[in-house]
Design goal:
Helix content: 55-70%
Strand order of the largest sheet: 1-2-3-4-5-6-7
Number of strands: 7
Radius of gyration: 26 Å
Oligomer: single chain
Strand content: 15-25%
Largest sheet: 7 strands, antiparallel
């Protein structure tokens, strides 16, 4: 049995490696080609930026690669009559599928580790490269790992507790103003800030002014104050994207902080649960491929195998996207929105496998 397990493992991993390489290369090539033809940025910047996308692309290509590897492995064994030989000596499909599922489960655990440990830092590196090099904003800095959000633009540094883009409201806002020599000139601190047609409106705070002539800063309190800065909610929208640069535990802490401030966190909760469910989609893809790979010798060969894989991948991602949208809109609980498509497709596959065995 160990010899058979090693053989099936070797065949599956070979097919998985080839499928991952082919899908990743195809996706990266078409993405690079489109951006190079646009000529919006220099070619070397486009290439570097897309190479920084490589870990993320590999994760996205893992589910279809697993589906393709499952179909190619089992259908190949079927066409070569190796499955028939296994059945004749009492080794059933369940035993063979268990070996493949065990491999895919380990792949999914590895994907989860990459999702949590590799993708967040590469996302921050990619974002920093895009803003500082491609967008020519060398002063850009954004960090939301700590208790507050730090955002730098030109001679201003913003310190925000929470930012809700939907309501355009900030809780706990401090604005540090520096001169050209990076000497602190003024600190504006407010408990809340709202964006109105004429700019940011601050409530319940203080203004502290620092002067080179006077060693003692001057502080004044205010109940309401307009803040004349050029930043709009669109500028702070980068904070929404930067959530992808957080590890799972950091994202969960950020969600709890947003909840305590009364902000809507459904989209963040969906993102949190979808990261975990996304890691185990390869298991779903593997189960999906089993009933369509063991129908004996089929016409069409590899072309038909590829067509089946692409069709099921398309319908699954469509269903998955709809589920996430329902979670963000509040129609489904965030955890259910992230896991429901996988549960439905696993049940569908289990029914097809049971029907094929009867």
């Amino acid at each position: 049995m160990k010899t058979l397990d090693r053989y099936i493992t070797a065949v599956f991993l070979r097919n998985f490696g080839l499928a991952t390489l082919a899908l990743t290369s195809l996706f990266l090539f078409q993405k690079l080609l489109g951006e190079l033809f646009e000529r919006q940025y220099p070619s070397n910047q486009v290439i570097i930026y897309n190479l920084l996308h490589l870990p993320d692309i590999l994760i996205q290509m893992t589910p279809p690669a697993v589906l393709l590897a499952t179909v190619l492995t089992l259908s190949g064994l079927s066409r070569s009559n190796e499955l028939t030989a296994c059945f004749s000596i009492g080794i059933g499909l369940r035993r063979i599928a268990a070996v493949i599922l065990a491999i895919v489960f380990m792949i999914s655990c590895f994907v989860l580790i990459i999702e949590d440990r590799i993708l967040p830092p590469t996302f921050r590196i990619r974002t920093t490269y895009y803003m500082r090099v491609m967008q020519n904003r060398p002063d850009f800095f954004l960090d939301i790992k700590q208790d507050k959000i730090w955002y730098r633009s030109k001679n201003l540094i913003y310190n925000l507790r929470t930012f809700d883009y939907k309501t355009q409201r900030i809780t706990g806002m401090a604005v540090y103003t520096f001169d050209d020599g990076f000497n602190l000139m003024q600190v504006v601190d407010a408990s809340h800030a709202e964006y109105r047609t004429n700019g940011w409106h601050l409530m319940d705070g203080t203004v502290t002014v620092f002067s080179k002539e006077d060693p003692f800063p001057l502080t004044q309190k205010f109940e309401e104050k307009d803040l004349p800065i050029t930043e709009t909610p669109r500028d702070f929208q980068e904070i929404e994207k930067e959530v992808d640069g957080l590890r799972l535990k950091e994202l969960w802490a950020y969600i709890q902080r947003m909840k305590s401030a009364g902000a809507d966190t459904k989209s963040y909760e969906v993102k949190f649960h979808s990261r975990i469910s996304l890691s185990f989609i390869p298991v779903v893809m593997c189960i999906l491929g089993i009933p369509f790979s063991t129908r004996g010798k089929r016409e069409g060969g590899m072309a038909k195998d590829l067509g089946i894989c692409l069709s099921f991948t398309f319908f699954y991602w469509l269903f998955y996207s709809i589920g996430l949208s329902l979670g963000i809109n509040g129609a489904l609980p965030p955890w259910l929105a992230a896991w429901l498509p996988s549960v439905v497709f696993v049940m569908l596959s289990a029914g097809l496998i049971t029907r094929r065995r009867t």
